[in-house]
Amino acid sequence: MSPSYSCEVSGQPISRRQLLGLGATIGLSSLAGLSGCTVTDLGLPDRPVDRARNGPTCVARASLPRFGRLASLPLVYEVNRRRSEFAIEQGFAEQLAAWLADLAELTGWDLRQLWTYGTWTDGTDRCSSWHNAGRAFDLARLRLGDGQQVSCRYDQWRTGPDRTMAAVRRRYWALAASAHKHFAYVLTYLYDDRHHNHIHLDNGRSGSAMSSFSTRSPAQVQAVQGMLTHLWDSPVEITGRYDAATRGTVATVLDGLEVSGELTDQPTWMALLDASTRRGAGPD
C-alpha cells in the first residue's frame, strides 16, 4: 500500500526527457511495501528524546534551494522510484555532500544513487521537526555501481536468511557509523519502529560542526551498542543507556584499535566511527 501523507514531502519529479538524457537507470528489487513511515500534521515523526536546546524554525519550501543531486549523486524518491528534486537548506546540503564523499573514501563504495523518503515538510505553525527547516534527510538506500545496494530498509531484510541478513546489517551499520560522524542526530531502526524503513539524520544538535558523543543521547548510545554487536563481534544489550557493560566493551574495542581516551573525547569518537565504517564495509 502506498503511504498516505498529511503534510507535503518535498520532491519534484524530474521529467522523463531529463531522465533519459541523463541515462539514469532504476530497477531495484524488493521494493514492495515501500514505506512504513508516515507524516503527521506535526511533520515526520523524528523527535529524538535528546533534542537540541534550540528547536527548528519553520521555513517555506519556496525559500529553500532545490537539489536533484548531492555529491553528484542523483536523488531518487523511494515512494515512487523516480528521480526527484528536494528542498534542502544550503548549509545542510553541503554537509550531506561532505558526508557522502567521506563515506565513499572510507568504504571504497562506488556510490551511484541516493534513495530518500524526503527532506522538507510543512510544519505549519508548529515546528516540531528539523524537516520543517529543510535540515533533515531520511535515507532509504544507496545504490552502488556494481548493482548492489546499501539498504536502510530493515522492514524488508530483517527476516531474510541469516547469512544474507548479516552482510546487509554490516553495511547498514557501516553507513550509520559514517552518518553519526557528521551528524549528532541519526536515528536507526533501533530507535523505534517508525525508523524501520529509513535512517533519519539532521544537524539540529551539531549544527555545522562534526558530531560529538553524549552518554545522555539514547540514539547515539544505541548506535554504539549496535556497532559493538554487529560490527565488532562484541554483543551487548541494546538499552540506549551507557551502562557498565557498554562502557567495558567500548574500552576493549578501543584497546584493540590502540585508541586512547573516552568516547566523550571527540577524537576518540571519530576514531571509533571511522574504524566501524571501514570494518562494516569490508569482507565478513
Question: Can you walk me through this structure?
Answer:
- The chain has 284 residues and is of the alpha+beta class.
- It has one domain (50-281).
- The protein has seven helices and ten strands.
- It has helices at residues 16-22, 90-107, 154-157, 162-182, 218-230, 244-257, 266-281, and strands at 12-13, 66-67, 69-70, 73-77, 82-87, 111-118, 136-144, 149-151, 185-187, 199-202.
- Strands 1, 2, 3, 4, 5, 6, 7, 8, 9 and 10 form a ten-stranded mixed β-sheet that branches.
- Strand 7 (136-144) and strand 8 (149-151) form a beta hairpin.
- The longest helix has 21 residues, at 162-182.
- The radius of gyration is 18 Å and the shape is globular.
- The two termini are 35 Å apart.
Keywords summarizing the entry:
Extensin-like_C; Extensin-like C-terminal domain-containing protein; 284 residues; 10-stranded mixed β-sheet; 7 helices; alpha+beta; 15% strand
Order of helices and strands: EHEEEEHEEEHHEEHHH
Radius of gyration: 18 Å
Number of domains: 1
> What is the tally of helical segments?
7
State the major sheet.
Answer: 10 strands, mixed
Task: Note the topology.
Blueprint: E1 12-13, H1 16-22, E2 66-67, E3 69-70, E4 73-77, E5 82-87, H2 90-107, E6 111-118, E7 136-144, E8 149-151, H3 154-157, H4 162-182, E9 185-187, E10 199-202, H5 218-230, H6 244-257, H7 266-281
Parallel strand pairs: 4-6
Antiparallel strand pairs: 1-5, 2-5, 3-4, 4-5, 6-7, 7-8, 7-10, 9-10
Helix pairs in contact: 2-4, 4-5, 4-7
